[in-house]
Write a structure and sequence with these properties.
This protein folds into two domains: 30 residues; 85 residues, Cytochrome Bc1 Complex, Chain D, domain 2, CATH 1.10.760.10. It is mostly helical. It is built from five helices and four strands; from the N terminus they run H-H-E-E-H-H-H-E-E. It is elongated and about 75 Å long. The structure holds heme C (HEC).
């Protein structure tokens, strides 16, 4: 039979662990976000309007017909993105976007690039359960 004092010690230990862990997570600063502007907001609306997420992922979420676009801005560059948006390809639709719309989508993808990373191999798992990007 378990003694009363053992139950209290266990309950206290669990409570202190829970509060300590909550405090650690609470004071853990989130990754810095990119600067959001009117143009990036317009880019996000275009992303939703044309349902780009049906084929592309951002932060690993979305369709799998096209590649993940979280870090396409830094990996492939703005000219590469513009070329795809301007003409499409065999498998990527051409939306006949205006230059302003293309600019907005590029700005949106720039902010996404600065605020996340889609490659799980670039993360270190911390002992407190959070993850950290390898610099
Ligand atoms: C019907 C599916 C589909 C939709 C919807 C779609 N794409 Fe694509 N996209 C693709 C495919 C497939 C590729 C790869 C094409 C290739 O390599 O020829 C691609 C490639 C790209 C690339 C180049 C990525 C790279 O790593 O080279 C960009 C940028 C892109 N798409 C942006 C967009 C944006 C922005 C939208 C919404 C306006 C969109 N796509 C909507 C299918 C789609």
């Amino acid at each position: 039979m378990v003694s009363e004092s053992f139950k209290y010690i266990t309950a206290t230990f669990l409570l202190v662990s829970f509060l300590t862990y909550s405090l650690v997570l609470y004071f853990h600063s989130p990754p810095p976000l990119g600067q959001s502007t009117e143009s990036t907001a317009a880019g996000k609306l275009l992303w939703q309007k044309y349902n780009c997420t049906a084929c592309h992922q951002i932060y690993g979420l979305g369709g799998y017909l096209g590649p993940d676009l979280t870090n396409v801005y830094s990996k492939k560059g703005i000219q590469h993105i513009k070329a795809f948006l301007k003409t499409g390809s065999n498998t990527m639709p051409d939306y006949h976007l205006s230059d302003d719309e293309i600019e907005s989508i590029c700005d949106f993808l720039k902010v996404i690039d600065a605020s996340g990373n889609s490659d799980p191999r670039l993360f270190i798992k911390n002992s407190n359960g959070t993850i950290q990007l390898i610099q």
